[in-house]
Each structure stands twice: as C-alpha cells, then as structure tokens.
Amino acid sequence: MKKPEIKQNIADKVVSYFSPVSGIKRMRARKVMALSDAYTGASTSRRSMYDFTPISQSADDAIKYSRDMLVRRGHHMYRNNPIVTGSLDSSCMSIIGPGLQMHSRIDGKFLNLSDDRREEMETNLEREWRLFSESTDCDISRTNNFGQLQNMTLLQSFVTGESFTILPYLDRPGFPYSLKVQIIEPERVYNDQNRADGPVNGKVSLYDGIEKDEFGAPIRYHIADFFPYQMTGKTQTWRKIDAFGGPYGLRNVLHHYIKKRPGQTRGVSMLAPVLEKLHTLDKYMKAYLDIALVQALFTVFITHENQATGSDLPIYQPDSETDATSSDDDYKMGPGAIIDLPVGDKIMTATPGMPNSNLDPFILAIYREIGIGLNIPVEILTKHFQSSFTAAKAAFNEAWRFYKMRRSWLVATFCQPIYERFLFECIARGRVDAPGFFDDPLIRAAYCGAEWVGPAQGHLNPVQEADAIEKRIKNNITTIEQETAEYNGGQFDRNIAQRKREVSLVKDAGAMEDPKPAFGQKPEQQPDEDPDKKKPEEEEDDAS
Length: 544
Prior knowledge:
Blueprint: H1 10-18, H2 20-35, H3 59-64, H4 67-80, H5 82-95, E1 101-104, H6 115-133, H7 146-159, E2 162-166, E3 182-184, E4 198-201, E5 204-207, E6 210-212, E7 218-224, E8 238-242, E9 244-245, E10 250-251, E11 253-257, H8 275-296, E12 299-302, E13 337-340, H9 359-374, H10 378-382, H11 389-428, H12 441-447, E14 450-453, H13 462-474, H14 480-488, H15 492-508, H16 536-543
Parallel strand pairs: 12-13
Antiparallel strand pairs: 1-14, 2-3, 2-11, 4-5, 5-6, 6-7, 7-8, 9-10
Helix pairs in contact: 1-2, 4-5, 5-7
C-alpha cells in the first residue's frame, strides 16, 4: 500500500525552524493521523464516527463499576420480564431438565481391569452416587437434591453472570456422607470490612472479594455471612475460605463463570447486552397497553356554564379505574363513568397515535435482536413456530448448539468437580474398593471418568430421525450406545437387559409374535420351504 505523502505547510516550517525536535514530532503526528483513515472503523474525521471514542480498559476495570448494577437489573428482569423468565427457564429445562445423570466411565484398560470387574465397579459407583445426589442431604440446607442444585447454579450464572459453591463437611445422622454442597450468591462475595482493592502482602492482591497470586490464580475467597443490606440485626462478618486445601489440593470453593478475557476475575450477566432493549421494550408495551385501555373506557364529563346551572344526573364512578393517583382533585376515567366537573373546568384531550398494523413485525424485529444477544433463535425465544419445517429445524439445531456448550461448561465447573470430591470420601470410607486411588493422580483420573447425560434434543420428525440413526450406526459413524444417550438420555446396556427380560416375559405368556430379523441381517428361510420349489405364480408364467 502506498503511504500517504505529507508535505510541510507554513506552520510546520516555522515550528521546525525554531525547534527541529518539535517539528519532527509534529510531522510524525500528522503521518499517524493520515494513516488512521486506512480503516474507516478507526476514523475520527468522519461525521458518523467522530464521537465514537471508547476507552480501553482491562477486563476487571470494565466490570468493576458495572457489575453491581447489572446484577440488580438482571434480578429485576428475571422477576418481572416474561421474555427473560421464559427464555432462561426454558434454557435450563433443555440443558439440565431434572438434572444431569452421571454414568461412570472407568478406564479399565489403564487399570488392568477385566470387563466384568470394570462394569461391577461402575455399577457400584453409580449406586453410591445416586444415594448421595438424589437425597436432599447433599444440600447443606437440606432443601434440594443435586439436580435441583444444578438448575440453581445454571440459572444464577445466566442472571448474575456467576455463582459460587462451597464444599464443606457436616455429619448428619442417617446419611453416610459428610460432604455438603452450599451455593453462594455472588453478592455475598466482596472484600471483608469493605476494604479497597489492592495488594495484601507480598505478591498477593485482593480484588472484589477474591485474593489472587501473582499469576492471577485464586488463593482465598471473602464470603459475607449474609446478604448485603439484609436486615438481620447482626453485624456483618466475613469468612475467608482457602480456594484449595488438604494434601491433594482439592478445591474448597468453586467459582462458576465464563471467562472471556485474560485476567477477568468476576463474571458478567448474560443479559448485559440486551438489558437496555428489554427495559425500553417493557416501557413501550406498557404505554401501548395504557393507550388501549384508555380508548376502551367510555366516560361522560358534565360541564356547567355558571353556578346556577346544575344537573340532576347521578354521578357514577366505577370501581375499575386506571392507574391514576388517588386524590380529591383526581379525575379518573372508567367504563361508563359520569363525572361532574366544577364550574369553568373543561376536559382537553390529546389523542396519541395508536400503533398501526406494523406493530407485530416491529416487536418481532426487536425480539430477533434480543435472541441474537442471548444466543437463542427468535422461534425458541417466543415459542412461536409459523415458518417452514426446515426453518424450525434449523432454529432447534442452533439453540441446541448453545445448550450443549452450556451443559459442557456446567459439567466442567460444577458436576465433575463435586463428583470427584465425592469419590474421595466414598473410597476413603471403604464403600467402594479402588486400589491406588490415593497413590497416583493418573490412577485417580482413571477412576474419576464419568459421562453426564441430560435431556435429549426435541424430535420434529421421529420417523426420519430414527432412519437417520439406523444409517449412522450401519455406516459405523456412531455407536448404538452413543445414539441411545443422545436420543433420549438412556443407557444401551440397561436397555438391552430390560428388553431381554421383557421378551422372556412375553414369550412365556405365549404372546410372542414372529421374530423379526435383527438389525443388519436378512430374513432367514423357513425350514419347511423348499428353495428349488417354484411358487404357483411362477409356474403359471412358465406355462404361458
């Protein structure tokens, strides 16, 4: 690319004459300004871009003074906005449903285990995990089981951008495990005694309730005993919990957030890019409803020319009124209302323009933009499918990409770390025998293998999708076990065992139909059928 030629003007020559150094700096600055128009997005001379001058901030600086307001507005929107409530709840149902189910996947080959021994250990681990996870005793408040805790964590990450989980030990009668799960709202994590951010000692720094080392790794979390500004009558105190502890370096605190920039310490609400549009749309729709309500009210106002003029009509004020304030001088419209005005008072009205027939396309355009910001197609966002089957299928597939990403994130930050922490106690108590678990991290990882299965993608055309599954298996693209898990969240080995029992029961009852050929096999020939014997219709063809 040819560089722009910069010539000295009179001012440049004068400056260079008296101060050559300043003249060189001046010419360098002019060249930089000339080159800045190489990208129109960086131009400061265009009328459309001259006031577009954002500042550059670190990840923490950009979040620090906005996060508190984003969290409060996110909570408000989830409580009051139907689009936010419906979309986030639907996402949780598609990602988690009643809860992600753990299927143990031990690396038997590395551990030199036979298939029978491996399957036995996997069955025992899954049984122990169900004992822990399906009971509300896994929750420190004895309120939710593990599936409900998953839903709470995911929803918090949507609304506030993050969530914290503490893993304390607490013995309770009748339950064999001491491990407990305690979810902490992000508002409770802030600097103890409201100290300012900065260095603590040496290379440790404190930022927004989290102490970090020189590499940015968390060392300690400051967690308040109760919610800020909560009226408890107690003095606020903080617990300082180490991020890692014990001889194995297990995590005591799990921080669930999506880190989008290097050095980012706290999370950002998923609603942040669309909060302004959601709030503006709320006000617009409320104004539209108010206009429609006022136009639906039939009200008669009686005016008097002088004091002597009066009316014998009864004054009627209906019970149902608009949202006007209640006072002696407050005239409220209502259905069929008759209002007597004082002498000299007259009613002047301004007729607002009602939205025309383009209201629905306009609202739908806003919903599309909100859906893009939330990574949810507008058809899924509004739960309204009026386009073609192909478009609806594409919307489902696009939403499912987002659901799978957030499911894998939840597994990596919440489910799997808690399961591994559970295995430490399970094996230490001798409930499951796992030789070498505490000796080698590689052996420990082989025992901790797990697959987390959740709700399957919806089926718009089950027949075609079943045919596609059959073709994928036939061409060795996938396995029956994988397709079973993805189709309805089932387990192939358990399905086969159950089908074996069902077929045996049907056969014993004498209700067995003629067996159909197995998948990939041709029908077998009947024993009493002679392969060389021609059928009657074939003999007739030969005779003709």
